[in-house]
């Protein structure tokens, strides 16, 4: 669990690293604020005068882990990031992740130079998208309700397995963990009175982030996802929220769906897969 002071230090370092740059670091603040005690996911480097000048974090998503970090501009080329990265990779090896992904802003020259020194390959680009107000018509044949029963949880596990590549055990552990964090709203998507999908919403002040959006494969292609997304967007918009989500650039179907509902890309993150 990160302390209030540590979170302040990370935020301050992020501000310094992004100053004058045309990018944002994806530090997954929703996860940083809800770290579980006793887990080694965050690595710090302080200068001789006690200033945080290097930070790197692991973000666990079941069978895979994402890594993102930063170093103060005045303290780069001193081996700080390499040292933090080495410690993080050791933890990853001990946990035996199936996939290790390195994450950096798509236009970060420093990050790409570092990746060139590693045995890794470009995996994909992810767009961060924001909703811009557009007319949406709510349709009645799709219903969204809170996820509350054991059957709902089982469906969410099933969807993580068939849509996101989790093993069943990993999906169970992941869903139990994000529920313990208690900072997201979990919803089930129903079509013709049958539970067919899921979606989560996380709130951070005036922002709402949409995660884990999935429809069972046998119900895809029926327009259910578009109708469900409209309902969520309209509900959050009525509460005055700014609405965001992430999508892989290679997922052309999802990208078109989000754009048709009023979402526009505003940042891009590149992912590189470590060879193991």
List its salient traits.
acyltransferase; Aminopeptidase; alpha+beta; globular; acyltransferase activity, transferring groups other than amino-acyl groups; single chain; 276 residues; N-acetyltransferase; GNAT_dom; 11-stranded mixed beta sheet; transferase
CATH fold topology of the largest domain:
Aminopeptidase
What is the arithmetic mean of pLDDT?
92
CATH architecture of the largest domain: 3-Layer(aba) Sandwich
Largest sheet: 11 strands, mixed
Q: Give the low-confidence spans.
A: none
Shape: globular
Please state how the strands of the largest beta sheet are arranged side by side: 1-2-3-4-11-5-10-9-8-7-6
Please provide the ordered H/E string of secondary-structure elements.
Answer: HHEEEHEHEEHHEEEHEHE
* Portion in strands: 25-35%
Q: Distance N terminus to C terminus?
A: 29 Å
Relative helix content: 25-40%
Give the radius of gyration. Answer: 19 Å
The count of β-strands is: 11
Overall tally of domains: 2
- Helices, by number, come to 8
CATH superfamily of the largest domain: Gcn5-related N-acetyltransferase (GNAT)
- Can you identify the CATH class of the largest domain? Alpha Beta
Helix/strand/pairing class, anyone? Answer: alpha+beta
């Amino acid at each position: 669990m990160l302390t209030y002071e540590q979170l302040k230090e990370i935020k301050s370092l992020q501000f310094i690293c992004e100053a004058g740059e045309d990018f944002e670091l994806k530090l997954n603040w929703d996860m940083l604020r809800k770290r579980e005690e006793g887990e080694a996911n965050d690595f710090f480097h302080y200068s001789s005068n006690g200033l945080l000048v290097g930070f790197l974090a692991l973000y666990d998503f079941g069978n895979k882990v994402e890594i993102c970090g930063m170093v103060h501009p005045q303290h780069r080329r001193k081996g700080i990031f390499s040292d933090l990265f080495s410690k993080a990779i050791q933890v990853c090896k001990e946990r035996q992740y199936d996939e290790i992904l390195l994450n950096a802003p798509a236009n970060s020259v420093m990050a790409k130079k570092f990746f060139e020194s590693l045995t890794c390959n470009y995996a994909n680009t992810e767009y961060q998208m924001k909703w811009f107000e557009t007319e949406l018509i709510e349709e009645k044949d799709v219903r969204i309700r809170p996820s509350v029963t054991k059957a709902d949880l089982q469906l969410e596990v099933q969807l993580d397995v068939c849509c996101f590549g989790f093993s069943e055990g990993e999906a169970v552990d992941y869903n139990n963990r994000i529920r313990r964090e208690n900072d997201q709203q979990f919803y089930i998507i129903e079509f013709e009175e049958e539970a067919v999908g899921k979606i989560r919403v996380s709130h951070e002040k005036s922002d709402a982030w949409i995660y884990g959006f999935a429809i069972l494969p046998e119900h895809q292609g029926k327009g259910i996802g578009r109708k469900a997304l409209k309902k969520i967007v309209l509900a959050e918009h009525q509460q005055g929220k700014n609405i965001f989500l992430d999508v892989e650039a290679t997922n052309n179907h999802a990208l078109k769906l989000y754009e048709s509902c009023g979402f526009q890309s505003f940042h891009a993150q590149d992912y590189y897969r470590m060879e193991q």
